[in-house]
Amino acid sequence: MKKVKKLLALVLSIVIFSLALSGGVTVFGEKQIEQKNYGAVIGWDGDKNGVLTYMDGSIINRADKFYEKNAQNKYKIIGFGVYNNPKTLKWYNEEGYLPCIVTEFDRDNCTVKIKNFGDKITIGGNDFVVIYSRVSIKNNGKSAVTIDPKPAKEFAALSKNSLTVEPGKTVNHDFAVVADRFGKKYAWPGDADLIKAGSWDTHYKNMKSYWDKRLSEIVQFNKLPDERLINAFKSGFITINIIKDGEALHVGEINIDADGYDNIYNHDQVGITAMLFTIGDYTNAQRKLSVLKMNGGGYDDGFWKYTWPWAIYLLKTGDREFVKKNLPKLKMMAHSIADGRTGPGGIMKETWDLDRTGNWTMDNWSGLMGLLAYKYACTELGEKSEAAWADKEYNSLLESMNTVISKTIKDYKLDYIPQHMLKPDNDAFSHENDKGFTVGPFLMGRWAWDGYLFNGVQNGPTIDMIDATYDNLFEYTKELNFPPHNLGGFAGHFSNTYNVGSAGAAIRGAGKYRAEAIYAYQFMIDYTQSGPFSWWEGIRDPGESPWEGTHPGGGAGSCPHAWGQSFASKLLVDSVIAEKIDGKVIVGRGIPVEWIRKGKVIDVSNYPISGNKRMGVKIESLGNNQVKLTLSGDTPKGDIIFNLPVFLGGNIKTTTAGKVDKAENAVVITSKTKSV
Q1: N or C end: fewer C-beta atoms under 10 angstroms in the chain?
Q2: What sign results for the dihedral spanned by CA atoms 572, 576, 577, 578?
């Protein structure tokens, strides 16, 4: 019997190794690890078909020249046979953030690194994306080793180095394969063309230079106590731009068996656009605004928040002419909010906005946010009657929402904000299937925090009970034995790509959870990456794989997921610095207490403020219960509100400048003050 088992194991290992060469599965112990459960994207800004890369160093190439007519998978998976199913491996971004994904493992006393990245090249006047791959082999032993990288036949060899590596030496084997032509139909280049186009190092330098320039245009996190967040922020911005097709924002890329979705929904589009403007990316901004979906299939909350990115764009750039020209669009979408108030007591109508039917609290928040944004735009453009209409409609909807939800809370004796306006969460959701996902308004409604930045009147239980709702959530996730700062999953999942977004209202709360967005982002880095800085929309329970660290066993939706990334990017910035529509700048409201310890430094620059200006802040913990704030760059229109969570509870003894606002637990200084 034992001999039979051994023979069976041998047969299985041979079959699995063969599959591993094609990138279908890898092996961990006696388990097959499906590559499609993991993935990170490489390619180029605005390419049509981004390329997913897997932990074994293989890639999925969607160039139609590689389609296999009779294959099970439509898309070609190509890799390197040097990968030998190690028990452990490292998988990461080169230099911490670049879209050059590295698989690192040991074999035969050598360290092997498989590096893949994309670069844009032009051949005969036609643009292509080419994937450049390097198999780097460093001999750590005392005798020479011969190792063949065994590239798939689709790769063109860019180097002809020896397969033998001397002790202490490194040998690089470089390859290239064409992957995309930006949706055009001209002829693909041949191997000879790729070889003539330049070396791996030349194209790496070009790739790095391009993305570093793009990154220089947005908010700069020069220093954070957790530098992983800096790399995650940079990588997230690059990923969003590779995922998009041309200038059309998308959510993800197609995986094996057509998993993932290479398209976008309207509320995704609104959220990603708002994030890009918040962090200072105005590349083709007018086009991004012009293509925001206004009708057809979509989610109602996306239509009701249509005005929001327009208002951010107006605030940051001052481009009154373009917004004025498009005001009829904003008017139509804002008035659709009033038309949608057909629910009980004048609340928003029943929708499918949480992928199930209901009178959702988040829809009312979305309506309030859209009205605030429209009011701001009309006020700035001198449209007094429309601004007055928006203000009146806002107050009416706020009153209706407060009346209806207060009754629900009272009738059912709730100690949290229900996701459904008319019933408790246990009646609106499956307690078992939606594991702790109880903060839909906080994720998609946007109004608690962003409405605060737009100076909206905010009152009632959906503001007063923010912290209590997080209390309720974390009591439940504790019962589920979830790690701290996992804000729950849906459809049976352990967590989701919106984990930071679910913490979005915490920064507006009374204070207990103001740093939760940063904690939630750290949780995602620690527990739920399915590729380097890459997350599934729905995230499964932690699983086993050779990749070092704790990672899920797969997921659903798309990986990476641009909309989920947009929540994380925006809230990381907002936690450190956020501008209100009156020009006041809030600094430090979402910074963890442990970041305000002696020697800790938070340094951010190039943050966009009104009037097309940029500013920076530096927060230094000096010890002896002292903290210093230094401003740099352009001068904002309004005061600076230094609002660290550590100030809560009357914890400000004295200040060297400005005044102490005891009600807000903040130090307020004029914009001309350079430090305090």
Answers
A1: N
A2: positive
List, in sequence order, the alpha helices (H) in 305-424.
307-317, 320-325, 327-339, 361-380, 384-411
The number of beta carbons lying within 10 Å of the beta carbon of residue 470 is 24
Whether residue 204 contacts residue 132, with contact meaning beta carbons closer than 8 Å, is answered with: yes
Q: Among residues 175, 187, 76, which one has the least CA distance to residue 127?
A: 187
Q: Are 446 and 365 within 8 A, CB to CB? A: yes
Nearest to 135 by CA among 94, 180, 174: 174
Residue range 284-341, pLDDT digits in tens: 999 999 999 998 778 999 999 999 999 999 999 999 999 999 999 999 999 999 999 9
Phi, psi angles (nearest 5°) of residue 393 = -65, -40
Distance CA 220, CA 217 (A): 8
* Ramachandran category for residue 481: left, alpha or beta (phi over 0 → left; psi -120 to 50 → alpha): left
Cα distance between residue 59 and residue 80, in whole Å? 10
Which secondary-structure segment (H or E) carries 555? strand 555-556
Q: Could you give the CA distance from residue 178 to residue 52 in angstroms, rounded to a whole number?
A: 14
Tens-place pLDDT, residues 465-482: 999 999 999 998 998 899
């990603």: which residue's tokens?
272
Distances (CA, A) of 432 to 426, 438, 493: 10, 12, 10
Pairing relation of β-strands 59-61 and 76-78? antiparallel
Q: Are strands 585-587 and 640-642 parallel, antiparallel or unpaired?
A: parallel
Residues 6+ apart with CB under 8 A from 170: 136, 137, 138, 139
Instruction: Convert 471-493 into a string of H (helix), E (strand) and C (coil).
Output: HHHHHHHHHCCCCCCCCCECCCC
Contact 261, 251 (CB under 8 A): yes
Length of the chain: 676
